[in-house]
Batch of 3 targets.
Target 1
Amino acid sequence: MAKIMVVDDAAFMRMMLKDMLATLGHDIVAEAGNGLEAIKAYEANKPDLVTMDITMPEMDGIEAVRSIRSTDPSAKIIMCSAMGQQAMIVDAIQAGAKDFIVKPFQKDRVELAINKVLGV
């Protein structure tokens, strides 16, 4: 069981992903609605893994990844994107994200990404 932080500006997407992660046996230790909140919540909770939306207000997911990885180079972050954001996914991987999952979320793909990133 991993301690996971869910970051997405849409509350219903956070809820859907949190429910999915809980059924996979993971512990949701924090959530955030934008990149700035994500950085603060990461520092406060030190999760094993973060799911990070790309497009958010105030600070996008790519900038948040850069910031989190600058303070914790071992941070494990999986980007979440809608279809058609392939260029942003490349930017996210270059910023330090370990994998990406595409919305709408499919449980088996989410599980595969988490297991891969955590080395399970």
Target 2
Amino acid sequence: MIYQISVALIAVAFAVLVFFLIRTLKSAQGSLDNVSKTLQEVQKTIDELSYEVKQTVRHANDITVDVQHKMKQIDPVMESVQNLGEVLNEVTEAAKQVSTTMIAKFQTKRSNQDPQNKRAEVAKVQTTPATPTDRTLQSYQATYNDTAKGGKNWVKYIDLAANVWQRMRK
């Protein structure tokens, strides 16, 4: 009889265990179904997004090609601007040289009238100029103060050019 009761208890325990296992498996199956649905939705969303991303990349590539084409068209304009800048720089340098010459000429006229300024100018010529502008002034003074080389003729031409320039500006 103990065997029969033991077998009956084992059968009842097994039935309870099977019942709870079935409930657990059904719960797990529900969870897996939810996961499966979620994965299907995620897959659908990824497919839609990948299509949109591909379109965006194509559009970006088109824009890049268009920008590169326009940049190639602008290159000659940029080169022209660069050349214009160089020309303006040269014109500025020429105007600077003319104005420097004019200043040197007026200073030499004053120094010829005032003997003290002449001494100061001799002192200036003897010192080594520190900047390129000072060296330029010194070279112009040396050139235009030398009357044996026809420096006075150049001064007249520069005066004439400065007068023409001033009249053109007005």
Target 3
Amino acid sequence: MLEVYRSSGLGRRRPIADTGRMAAMVRNANLFITCRIDGELVGIARSISDFSYVTYLSDIAVSRAHQRSGIGRALMDATQKEAPQAKIVLLSAPAAADYYPHLGFTRHNSAWVLNP
């Protein structure tokens, strides 16, 4: 899993050196979807959802070698399928901000972040 984070580029924005914290992130997510090709983990969608109103898609990561192949879209579709009535909310990495509008996402200008 850590290699997917590293390879995707998302590892720069996640505490991948702290394996205990990364394990807790996965353990405490209540919706975790993966993509494997020939047994190799190549994609991850990690979310927290109430399965009714909102799903917070906190991580979507696809290994660099498999980006632009539809895996990210498939992970989002699978996430939405698990909670079809819930809207999906995500915070985009700056480099990926132009990716989401063509998938039907709309920009929301009133998101706020309070860091620990």
